[in-house]
Specification:
Layout: H1 8-33, H2 42-66, H3 70-76, H4 80-93, H5 103-131, H6 137-156, H7 169-180, H8 190-193, H9 196-211, H10 213-223, H11 229-239, H12 247-268, H13 283-298, H14 317-332, H15 334-356, H16 372-398, H17 409-421, H18 435-447, H19 460-474, E1 480-482, E2 485-487, H20 489-516, H21 524-535, H22 550-565, H23 567-574
Antiparallel strand pairs: 1-2
Length: about 600
């Protein structure tokens, strides 16, 4: 909702004050919790937070008098009243009605929670306003990712984030990029080298990076009733939704569906840690491990709290019954999941009408049809899973070196085929696999998941369009056809562009890594595997990630960022406001092939 103010200059001053206050809130929390001992006296830091609380309250009062329509202001900020009431009840009631032994701690905690909610809300509003500013929303998305990566790297460098020695800048930046880009490549052992605070930072980066900063901002704005038509149009560009009326439902579905799937996954794998002898964790650790790996699996991040990923759990049924579906659902794309949910709801509604409203039995409308996008994604994903599994089984059995690796079996090959396109977990030693099986994994990583998902790669739909373009040429057809539907020529051009850019980045990154790592005993197969894993945001590795030079780590950081945002997104960010050409050159025949 766009709010109009009387004094525009005063509003700009308040925006600057908000930015400084939000930075001060973050700095106060870093001083309190980022070090072994607070940098300043706790009383001083609490006094600073109390002053910041007053700043936020005074800012709201000034804006209330500066706004042209107070009703418009209250509709946009209705949540402030219950927040302030709750804060007042806690502050005044602590020591009287509850927390009589330690009221000051409860008061400080309530003030801190209010400040955090204020900062998060303002960040979400800012992301929405930038996306709807009339400029390319893809630039906003790129900027959001960069800010998140840099902030995450700074938090991971804090002493309290490390369980052993402090993490250096390059390693912290690498870890933050890998988590934000939901890749899973690591230079530090996530379970051993990071403390609980560091693991929570990584988990937060995975969740925010998997769904996107702007999507989270849109969710908050919609919950607060602040999404205007212009803001919904910005979300349409970011989510590639077809109609403005679906944006609200789509974003709500993303948020609710993600939380629900991850919660079900965490509950389902709670007992998985008991399957392996030697587990010494308590109930709290089990819940944290369950939540961490459920989010990591659904967001296709591939981060594991175990040094060998899931090799020790390769015989656990939860691995294949829970983790595999989480990875697949996260890689299908929210558009496909939304379409499938609508089809299921439509079928249920028709069944209900058929049995309980017999007069509608002969007048019911046609059933909801599955979209072409959903058909392509489901069919290509199923084919890739099966073909990848068969390829891994074949090459590991007949091309693997004797004693190099155990036979992965059908379930092991199935898991690697699923995880290679998206997640990056592994139940077998990737380093010990045959060269041919590694090549299969590189192909799967290059293809990746589906559009609108947390996965990387060129995407399944892109592969389908490129393959069907070649088939159309061989069949001498002028149009690309799939499932009795024609594909527009502009979509074919985008698919070819994405594929060529990914090929260029893959070979360019492999070449640069071969130069920077020339002194290391790495094979070209290992280097290309590492580059393909980073570009596909997968996270599988042959074990060379931690041994890379700083230059090699920087290259992988750049490749992960490119793979997450996508070459087409970067291209759109650079060419969003170009004016169309008003002329065409005469054509002339050329020979290809």
């Amino acid at each position: 909702m766009q709010i109009h103010y009387k004094n525009k200059r005063l509003e700009k001053v308040l925006i600057g004050v908000n930015v400084l206050a939000a930075a001060a809130v973050a700095a106060s929390y870093v001083c309190l919790f980022g070090f072994d001992k607070p940098l300043l006296q706790v009383g001083i830091l609490y006094a600073v937070q109390l002053a910041l609380l007053c700043v936020f309250i005074v800012e709201k009062i000034i804006r209330l008098f500066n706004v042209t329509s107070k009703a418009e202001f209250w509709r946009a900020n209705w949540f402030e009243i219950p927040l302030l009431l709750a804060l007042g009840i806690v502050v005044s009631g602590a020591g009287r009605w509850f927390a009589k032994t330690d009221p000051d701690t409860i008061r400080h905690l309530s003030v801190g929670i209010y400040l955090v909610l204020q900062v998060v809300t303002k960040l979400c509003k800012t992301s929405i306003n930038l996306a709807a500013s009339g400029k390319s929303p893809t630039r906003t998305l790129i900027a959001s990712f960069l800010v998140l990566i840099i902030s995450g790297a700074g938090l991971l460098m804090l002493p309290r984030s490390s369980a052993t020695e402090n993490v250096g800048f390059v390693d912290a930046l690498f870890t933050a990029t890998s988590a934000t880009c939901v890749t899973g490549l690591i230079v530090k052992n996530t379970g051993e080298d990071f403390s609980l605070m560091g693991k929570i930072v990584i988990l937060s980066l995975i969740q925010l990076g998997g769904l996107g900063i702007v999507v989270f901002g849109a969710v908050i704005a919609l919950l607060l009733g602040q999404a205007s038509l212009r803001e919904r149009m910005a979300m349409q560009d970011l989510l590639s939704a077809r109609t403005l009326s679906r944006i609200g439902n789509m974003i709500a579905f993303i948020f609710v569906g993600t939380m629900l799937i991850e919660a079900v996954g965490a509950v389902s794998i709670f007992r998985m840690w008991d399957d392996v002898p030697g587990w010494a964790g308590n109930g709290h650790n089990q819940w944290f491990y369950s939540i961490f790996h459920s989010i990591s699996a659904f967001c296709n991040a591939g981060f594991s709290l175990f040094s060998d990923s899931f090799v020790g759990y390769n015989r656990s049924w939860n691995m294949y019954v829970v983790i595999c579906p989480l990875i697949i659902l996260g890689g299908l794309g929210f558009g496909v999941l939304y379409d499938l949910a609508n089809i299921a709801a439509d079928r249920a509604k028709r069944l209900f009408k058929k049995w309980f409203n017999k007069r509608y039995r002969f007048s019911m409308e046609a059933p909801r049809r599955m979209r072409l996008q959903t058909k392509i994604v489901l069919s290509v994903s199923a084919c890739l899973i099966v073909l990848g599994m068969l390829g891994i089984l074949l090459f590991e059995r007949y091309a693997g070196q004797s004693g190099s690796a155990e036979n992965p079996g059908v379930l092991g090959a199935l898991f690697q085929s699923i995880t290679a396109r998206t997640a990056g977990f592994n139940t077998i030693d990737v380093k010990a696999m045959s060269v041919q099986a590694k090549f299969i994994l590189i192909l799967l990583m290059f293809i990746g998941g589906s559009p609108g998902s947390t996965a990387g790669g060129i995407k399944t739909v892109t592969l389908a369009v490129v393959v069907m373009t070649a088939i159309a040429a061989l069949r001498k057809r002028q149009e690309v056809e799939m499932f009795k539907r024609s594909v527009r020529i502009v979509v074919v051009g985008r698919a070819i562009t994405v594929t060529l850019l990914f090929v260029a980045v893959l070979f360019g990154a492999t070449l640069m890594l071969s130069i920077t790592e020339s002194a290391k005993p790495f094979t070209m197969s290992d280097i290309m595997f590492e580059a393909g894993s980073a570009l596909g945001t997968v996270g599988l590795t042959t074990g060379i990630t931690a041994s890379l030079t700083n230059a090699g780590k920087v290259i992988i950081i750049i490749v992960m960022l490119i793979g997450r945002l996508g070459p087409l997104t970067l291209l759109a960010a650079l060419t969003f406001n170009l004016k169309p050409v008003r002329y065409n050159y005469p054509d002339e025949a050329i020979i290809v092939g």
